[in-house]
Amino acid sequence: MAADGPYNERMFEVLGERLEGVFKRLRGKGRLTEKDVEAALREIRLALLEADVALPATKQFLAGVRARAIGDDILKSLTPGQQVIKIVHEELIRILGEKESAIRFSSHPPTVIMLAGLQGSGKTTAAAKLGNHLKKKGRRVLLVAADLERPAAIKQLEVLGEQAGVGVHADHEAKDPVVVARDGIERGKMQADVVIVDTAGRLHVDEDMMDQVQRVHDVISPDEVLFVLDAMTGQDALLSANAFSERLPLTGIVLTKLDGDARGGAALSAVTVTKKPIKFAGVGEKLTDLEPFHPDRIASRILGMGDVLTLIEKAEEVVSKEDAEKQAKKILEASFTLEDFLDQMQQVRKMGGIGDMIKMLPGIPGVGKLSDVDVDEGDVKRIEAIIRSMTPQERRDPRMISGSRRSRIARGSGTAVRDVNDLLKQFDAARKMMKQMSRMKPGKGRKGGFPL
Amino acid sequence: MTTELLYLLVAGVSVLVVAAIFFVGLRSKTRAKTPPAPEAPPREVPAPEAPVSEAPAPEEPPAAAVPPAPAPPKISVADRFSRGLAKSRLVLSERLNLVLGKDRLSEDDWDEIEEALIRADVGVKAATKIVTKLRTSKPAVSELKAALRDEMVSVLSGRQRQLAMGPGVTSVWLVTGVNGVGKTTSIAKLAHRMKAEGSSVVVAAADTFRAAAIDQLGTWAERVDVPMIRHDPGSDPGAVLFDAISYAKARDIDLVIADTAGRLHTKTNLMDELKKIKRVAEREAGSVAEVLLVLDATVGQNGISQAKTFQEAIEVSGVILTKLDGTAKGGIVLAVEQELGIPVKAVGVGETLDDLQPFVPGEFVDALLADS
Q1: Do A350 and A430 sit in the same domain of this protein?
Q2: Last-in-domain residue among A305, A332, A361
Q3: Which helix (H) or strand (E) holds A115?
Q4: Touching check for B162 and chain A: CB below 8 Å?
Q5: Same-domain pairing of A266 and A357
Q6: Are both A253 and A327 inside the same structural domain?
Q7: What is the ipTM of this complex?
Q8: Gap from A195 CA to chain B (nearest CA, Å)
Q9: Residues in chain B closer than 8 A to A328 (CB atoms)
Q10: Residue A203 included in any domain
Q11: Are A260 and B11 a contacting pair at CB < 8 A?
């Protein structure tokens, strides 16, 4: 699979494999030096930068890992690569999840929550999701539309507020967001336990607008000031988070758009520079798609170790428990048929693209890493067409598919006989894999087993 | 691990494994079967005179303005760590000048150059490529900065950057992108510019999903003074575009600019919807003259993934790079052009209607290498 030479190959290798490579080369030497550790740290640096962790944050992070790695005496370990990964992973979780991340409610209600951030980071949506979340917890929520800049931002909050079933304070004639915010708080004192103030998106270099957000803050004295950050942000996350935290006493971060395939290194940049916890993660377009932040998941994601937990959650959404058990049994007995495969493919499509799902998996022993398996939706459709052109018996027992049946299937699905042959061959190989997998017992710490 | 979880794992994951094995096998075959598609010929349609404002002023004068730091001492590695984040303030050009002012470059210096590019979101891969090329060309140290600039400009050179009109009476531009990148605002700016150039324009409010998106575009349409075709929130975006094109054709309107809902490129169903919207446009207008992907300058390496997926789904013809007026450099477009060959056709540099400018590679690179 070495497509474009060693360079590309290296770029897409999972960090763990890279590190094992580094240490394997060194193992013969008997004794590892500090320089060898540096080589490993270089690989980690690359992984972090590729995940969009800002350079200064990367350097600071590596300094911490270096100190621990030397103290930990990783060199005596049998698997120094894994040991380093463990340290890196733990260190990431420590930094990202050190602080308490729940909303602090005021002892003198209403609790005031203010949202701020760049344009397009998702403040208005986050405000509505947060309102929805708190309402479900039994709070009386009032949203305040203090974004007077973007056309129809007020209307957007009104619509979302209605969907969430929470009140919205809005003034379509208002010119000054400070006034709207103050009026919103006054109204909140009478009819809410929690007031969430949405503000206009602004560039952190726009002095006038930064003055304005500071004035809004001063007049409402919020209990929580949340910086809303797009998970897809690159190096700039550090600068913008820093600028906002210089103007506003931030209490936390909301990381949005985590349902994409961004590695999310911006999270580490922002936490490093603000020293504030990430309190919530936006994971979808629905009002309910707001989650408490899981440092372990984003840590794995930043390191490209696969996001298996998210995968499981997605699977739970579309696969019922009974179905799952039935499928699992079939796989364990290696009686999985093409019919089941077709079924499963459709379910996986409901979860999102097949390619995206595969990318969430860590490497598979014997197959290698899967993150660079490029899945073409056209291929998926062709496979579907071929399987659909088979009779039910053929799907259950592909061995009966003779030459003439193959050409019939090819004609029926508008493909070539060769495509049908390929599919049957691949399915056979996959089935053999499953047999192997089913022989493996789940357990902890086994080496070379199914990587979960 | 509970049994229930185990079942889910086995069922959910194994099917993916099976699928993966399938594709590993199939991919290698399809690659062998089909030779790489030849690059599409440049479109031969009459393009309007693009730049309204001639010679768009670069935000900053190029690096020369940086106060000279007389023979600064080399920063040791330890120093670098202790300075930590404060150092992020040290502006790019300063760092570059520091390195580029030397007689001989050490490994660390080359790393500095690479890091300067990474800081601008160029990405490790593209940055390494550029620096490697620079090193092999062995420019005289005094010409290093110019050589770096040239190398970067050459990555961006030779692309057609004019926004194109289609062959028919009515052209269609489809504006797409992930959530929050600035599609609606960009459409307003595009409409304003095309109108100023004498084209008649109608905008189609085909983002029927996001709350109040229609009203947002409506406000802009009023300001720009162009008609807008709209349906109710939640209705079929394809139908909105259908109506907008019919409206334009009946009145000989030159251009339909269609807004679409922001969608993360990983959502297969939403990407399918986008394909359908494009098909409607192709059927009704004969062709889609521009499929524009809006990229936010603050985006990191995910920008590549976005561009690639949109490209595969709807054949993107150009990129609009927004929010360049902040500190973000938008370096990802270097990688997007290099890897995917999609040209940037306009940049957004502010909040007013006139803040849409043509993309000029030299200016972009200068800004990228200059102060933040």
Answers
A1: yes
A2: A305
A3: strand A111-117
A4: no
A5: no
A6: no
A7: 0.77
A8: 21
A9: 6-8, 10-11, 14
A10: yes
A11: no
Name the residue type at position A281.
A
Would the CB atoms of B212 and A383 count as touching at under 8 Å? Answer: no
pLDDT tens by residue, chain A, 452 residues = 333 333 233 333 456 666 666 666 655 554 556 777 788 888 889 889 989 999 999 999 999 988 887 776 666 666 666 677 788 888 999 999 876 678 999 999 999 999 999 999 999 999 999 999 999 999 999 999 999 999 999 999 999 999 999 999 999 999 999 999 999 999 999 999 999 999 999 999 999 999 999 999 999 999 999 999 999 999 999 999 999 999 999 999 999 999 888 999 999 999 999 999 999 999 999 999 999 898 988 888 888 765 555 555 566 666 666 676 676 677 666 677 888 878 777 777 766 666 666 655 554 444 444 444 556 667 778 888 898 899 988 888 888 888 899 999 999 988 889 889 888 887 887 777 777 666 654 433 333 333 33
- A226: which strand partners? A115, A252
Q: Residue A228 is part of which domain span? A: 111-305
- Helix H or strand E encompassing A280: strand A278-282
Instruction: Based on the fold, state whether residues A269 and A314 are members of the same structural domain.
Output: no
Is A257 inside any structural domain? Answer: yes
For an interface test with B, the pick among A8, A12, A49 (most B C-beta atoms closer than 10 Å) comes out as A49
- CA neighbours within 13 Å on the CB side: how many for B132? 7
Q: Token pair for residue A37?
A: 């550790």
A377 part of a folded domain: yes
Do residue A84 and residue A175 come from a single domain?
Answer: no
In this prediction the pTM is 0.74
Q: How far is A137 from chain B (nearest CA, A)?
A: 24
A298/A271 same-domain check = yes
CA–CA dist B342, B332 (Å, integer):
12
In the numeric block, the tokens 């006034």 are attached to: A179
Statement to judge: residues A20 and A43 lie in one domain? yes
Q: Which residue in A158, A262, A358 is closest to B16 by CB distance?
A: A358
| From B1, B211, B326, residue closest to A160, measured CB to CB | B211
Q: What is the CATH number of the domain that holds A85?
A: 1.20.120.140
Q: Tell me whether residues B16 and A60 touch, CB distance under 8 A.
A: no
Let me know: does A175 contact A148? Beta carbons within 8 Å: yes
**Pairing assessment for the beta strands B318-322 and B344-348 based on DSSP bridges:** parallel
Q: Is the minimum CB–CB distance between B90 and chain A shorter than 8 Å? A: no
Residue A42 lies in a domain: yes
Q: Which of A120, A285, A422 shows the shortest C-beta gap to B182?
A: A120
- Written as six digits, the tokens of B216 are 């947002």
Give B59's contacts (C-beta < 8 A, 6+ positions apart). B324, B325, B349, B367
Tell whether A147 and A266 lie within a shared domain: yes
